[in-house]
Design a protein that fits this description.
- The protein has 3 helices and 26 strands.
- Strands 1, 2, 4, 7, 8, 9, 10, 11, 12, 13, 16 and 17 form a 12-stranded mixed β-sheet that branches. It has a 9-stranded mixed β-sheet with strand order 21-24-19-18-15-14-20-23-22, with no helix packed on it. Strands 3-6-5 form a 3-stranded antiparallel β-sheet, with no helix packed on it.
- About 6% of the residues have low confidence.
- Helix 1 packs antiparallel against helix 2.
- It is mainly beta.
- A hairpin with a 4-residue loop joins strand 18 and strand 19.
């Protein structure tokens, strides 16, 4: 039995799942009517089904049902396909027979005129049969596509409902339910151009796998998901006691603000790309209308959209133009590469802008990174990719340990040489960062001997140089410090933060570089 057909009119899509609103037309007689309504997919949640009829109509006995085999339209279509397949076999057999009968070497019963007539008629006969095969195959293709569509939809449930109407009428109705096989994922982009404000773009990748195309549908995206459980959390008592175990726990690892957790791809900015922008520019797109609901943010996309049954359709949500300060930063102790960075006020960042982010520098794709803004800090700094024209190095020049007999102590003096070269044809400002250790024990002292005027943070021992480099200029910095501690004691070092291979610059979590195998001390 064929159900009443309905069409999707608007969809509110959660990050996982969607509320689908369909519309249909029902012909009702006075009294009770048994309706079968089609449209919902096999992944629709029956518990969420709602029907909306004009006032005065009552309904009952709501349930999902499935068509019986004898009622399926696909059965008749399958029979048509089988008949056409047999017709193709017949045409092919006729072509074979016409060719075989055209071999006259073993036949003595035909005169010359009959042979000439047969040979003259053969091309026309074969051409007609081949044309019939082609036409039949085209018809088969259409029927098989229709069979696939029917088979997919006939496996979907029909909504069975009893409707009572006081009079005979034809009326519009709406069919609403929660669909599990749909959702959207945020796609964040950063568009940067040194000297210009940074542009943040929020986009959405919408997907649905319901078996049908959502054609010309009003779409709204919701930032969250329906809660499976909405119980209010409760606090229990919190007790304190003296710890008897004196073992020191491992230090907690923290991520430095603005540190990228994904390795950027190598990128070179092409001059001709900039020249092309004089003729063509990126097309403007309509953004979503944003409203804040009680528990979520809703993005209403402009107009209507067609969302095919696929893994992804892109839509633009919002864009933000923010003041930005660009810097070239080098941390040679951790990475032999210099990076272009962007610094913006944390309070200017939209709350939704975190997680994986695609980077574009002068409209050239530069790779992806992971943004995790720290709301407790005033500024947020993130990398835009490697600045290849700035060369940096860090070389250990001295490590000497000696003993002070009168003080009953030992000390080690460290000395490093840092070189920074500007390979560009214009003056560049480069921020260089390094560090000296920080004592967490009053018996251990750290003395900074030489830093070439670096700005020092007494709390964490970080050193910062701000260098002005002329074109092709190289500057050399010297960092020296001395560590003193009681004789007979050993010092342990604890590093908090990210580590990079000094040879290739890859991020390192263990004792060896995962890319080049360099031992990491």
């Amino acid at each position: 039995m064929k159900g009443i057909q309905t069409a999707v009119k608007n969809v509110r899509i959660f990050r996982n799942g969607a509320i689908v609103r369909r519309q249909g037309k029902a012909e009702l007689s006075a009294g009770d009517n048994q309706l079968l309504i089609a449209g919902a997919s096999g992944s629709a949640d029956f518990n969420t089904v709602r029907l909306y009829f004009p006032a005065g109509i009552r309904m009952s006995d709501l349930r999902f049902t499935y068509p019986k085999d004898e009622d399926k339209e696909s059965t008749a279509v399958q029979e048509e396909i089988e008949e056409l397949e047999k017709a193709i076999e017949t045409y092919e057999l006729q072509i074979q027979l016409w060719k075989e009968n055209g071999v006259f070497t073993s036949r003595q019963d035909l005169d010359t005129q009959q042979i000439e007539n047969y040979i003259g008629e053969l091309p026309e006969r074969l051409s007609a049969l081949r044309k019939k095969i082609t036409e039949t195959k085209h018809a088969l293709t259409k029927l098989r596509k229709r069979l696939d569509d029917l088979s997919r939809k006939e496996d979907d449930p029909l909504l069975s409902v009893r409707v009572c109407s006081e009079q005979e009428m034809t009326c519009d109705f709406e069919y609403v339910y929660h669909e599990n096989n749909a959702g959207w994922q945020p796609v964040n982009e950063v568009h940067a151009d040194p000297g210009q404000p940074v542009v943040l773009k929020s986009r959405a990748r919408i997907s649905q796998n319901t078996g049908e195309e959502w054609k010309d549908v009003a779409i709204a995206l919701l930032s969250g998901n329906p809660s499976a459980y909405s119980d209010l959390p409760e606090l229990g008592p919190l007790y304190l006691r003296i710890r008897t175990n004196t073992r020191v726990s491992a230090p907690r690892m923290m991520m430095a603000n603005g540190a990228a957790t994904a390795k950027l791809t190598k990128m070179e900015l092409l001059d001709d790309a900039a020249e092309a922008s004089d003729e063509l520019c990126e097309a403007d797109t309509e953004e979503a209308a944003v409203s804040t609901e009680e528990t979520m943010t809703e993005y209403v996309l402009p107009g209507t959209k067609t969302i095919p049954c696929s893994e992804g359709t892109m839509a633009d949500l919002q864009s933000y133009t923010l003041p930005c300060e660009y810097e070239i930063v080098a941390v040679p102790k951790m990475d032999i590469r210099a990076y272009m960075t962007a610094k913006i006020k944390t309070e200017d960042l939209p709350a939704s802008f975190n997680g994986r982010t695609e980077l574009y520098l002068k409209d050239v794709y530069a790779g992806s990174t992971y943004l995790a803004p720290d709301s407790t800090k005033k500024e947020f700094v993130f990398s835009l990719g490697r600045e290849e024209a700035i060369q940096v190095s860090r070389t250990e020049k001295k490590r000497k340990t000696s003993e002070a007999m009168l003080m009953n102590s030992k000390n080690t003096e460290y000395s490093y040489e840092l070189k920074i070269t500007n390979g560009k044809d214009s003056e560049q400002t480069v921020i260089v960062r390094d560090q000296i250790p920080v004592s967490q024990d009053k018996t251990i002292t750290v003395e900074l001997l030489e830093s070439n005027g670096a700005e020092k943070d007494e709390k964490d021992g970080m050193l910062t140089w701000k260098l002005q480099l002329a074109p092709k200029e190289t500057k050399t910095l010297t960092l020296s410090y001395k560590v003193t501690w009681p004789k007979g004691k050993n010092i342990s070092e604890t590093t908090v933060g990210n580590r990079f291979c000094p040879a290739c610059g890859a991020r390192v979590s263990g004792s060896f570089c995962p890319e080049c195998g360099t031992p990491i001390g």
